[in-house]
Amino acid sequence: MQKNELFDKYLLILKEWNRKINLVQKNTLNDYFNRHIKDSLQITDFINKDDYIIDIGSGAGFPGVPLAIYGYNKMLLCEKNYRKCIFLKILKERLKLNYNIFNGDVFNLNVSRETFQNTTAISRAFGSLLILIDFLNKKKILKGVFHKGENYMKEIEEAKHFFEFDFLAKPSITNPKSAIILIENIRRK
Known about the structure:
Blueprint: H1 3-20, H2 32-41, E1 52-56, H3 64-69, E2 75-79, H4 82-95, E3 100-103, E4 119-123, H5 129-139, E5 143-148, H6 152-160, E6 163-171, E7 179-188
Parallel strand pairs: 1-2, 1-4, 2-3, 4-5
Antiparallel strand pairs: 5-7, 6-7
Helix pairs in contact: 5-6
């Protein structure tokens, strides 16, 4: 299947499952491509296809599933909610995508840098930047790429009370007040 066909099929499955469990706000499906797909794919500027990618709080599959459709195939989609994991499994099977699924608390995920030399954690809507940086630090993951809302600078300042890190904030292409944040070189204070 071509990418456009896969995205169309993704939308149909998403609409079907969104009626059963709350995956995304219903009104966001009216502009599905811009709101979810384009928004998810803008992180490709910061990740490589050779990276092992951990998508934290995958939920409806954003940003992990669009990345899988674009050929990123070393991915682990992490989701605590069992029903959302079933949805991710159905997407994987119906769209014939290549990713793994972890159902559980992401802080219980066993990741070693020796196993995954080029691991990058990504997240679109998991939690505060402080929580995400704490996760990176505890799991010894060297790089994170996160979608953050309009208060991203406030979140960066809050995290700087506990950690030292390098960051790059790139304005989001879907909401110029939001940003994609690249986090690297984390050190606990």
